[in-house]
Amino acid sequence: MKVILNILKNLANSGVHFSDNAENSRRIILSNSMSLVFICLALPYSFWFFYLGSLFMGLMVVPFISLFSISILLNRFGKQNYSGFVLIIGTAFSSYFYASVYGGESGIQYFLLVLLPLASILFSKKQHFQRYIAMAIIVFTYLSLEISNFSFFHHEILSTDHLKFLRVMTVLNFLFMLIFMVDFQLKMASYKQLNLNQFLNKYGLTEREGEIVLNLCKGKSNKMISAELFIEEGTVKVHLQNIYKKLSVKNRTEVVSFFCVIP
């Protein structure tokens, strides 16, 4: 179990080293974490479809899991913007597909609502265009289902008990995703509220080293830090080397990721 948890944690942090500030690091971690959650949620559904004797529906889980995996890979190679879109598109299309097949009574279409806050978190304020496009995709997907009255090339009829089970699971998954995002945001907020004294005591840094790390997390360069703290740029480099040694990291991006991993 510990090995599996370590693997999941490493996957959640894939691509963080490409980030130059704490905000982007948190978005990368959230994107990876949500992809992993969607993969973990999709697998039980696949087995359930096989149990119902629907080979087609069970196999259709595979391309959607592949999209979520691609999202993680894109982050791993430093393509954060593309990763966010793949995650949103994968979730929107999978919701559209299964809602169309099982109809509006399944309630699957309402799962799209959880994607709206996710889209607003995944893209920064500077990426407002990408954020609006992602939200537009979600809204368009939902409206397409409602306007078309869930018309699709393939439909499957579930028994009353199976349909009730699917509806209950959809609600539970919806609540789980909301709780996951809220919990994640609270953890990240607690990181930002960590005061300087706690920061220094926890990692054995001097007050000056702590100030430098906090500025690194704001995405500032050595030159900007030297101007901010009224010290020479060479002094900043010396402090950075001491910080690397104390934290057992190799570069500034690893310093940022060190303080942005999920607890």
Considering the chains and any ligands shown, give keywords for the structure.
mainly alpha; 263 residues; 2 domains; Arc Repressor Mutant, subunit A; 74% helix; 13 helices
Fraction of residues in helices?
A: over 70%
Helix and strand string, N-terminal first?
HHHHHHHHHHHHH
User: What is the molecular shape?
Assistant: elongated
Q: Tell me about the biggest sheet? A: none
Alpha carbon gap, first and last residue? 17 Å
From the alpha-carbon coordinates, what is the Rg to the nearest angstrom?
Answer: 22 Å
Low-pLDDT residue spans: none
Total strands: the figure is 0
The assigned structural class equals mainly alpha
How many structurally independent domains? 2
Total number of helices = 13
Mean pLDDT: 86
Strand content: under 5%
Task: Record the SSE blueprint.
Layout lengths: L1 H11 L9 H30 L3 H5 L1 H16 L3 H23 L12 H8 L5 H20 L12 H33 L3 H8 L3 H10 L5 H8 L3 H15 L4 H7 L5
Helix pairs in contact: 2-4, 2-5, 2-8, 4-5, 5-6, 5-7, 6-7, 9-10, 10-12, 11-12
Question: Your description of this structure?
Answer:
The chain has 263 residues and is mainly alpha-helical. It has two domains: 2-192, no CATH class; 196-258, Arc Repressor Mutant, subunit A. Helices cover 74% and strands 0% of the residues. It has helices at residues 2-12, 22-51, 55-59, 61-76, 80-102, 115-122, 128-147, 160-192, 196-203, 207-216, 222-229, 233-247, 252-258. It is elongated. The mean pLDDT is 86.
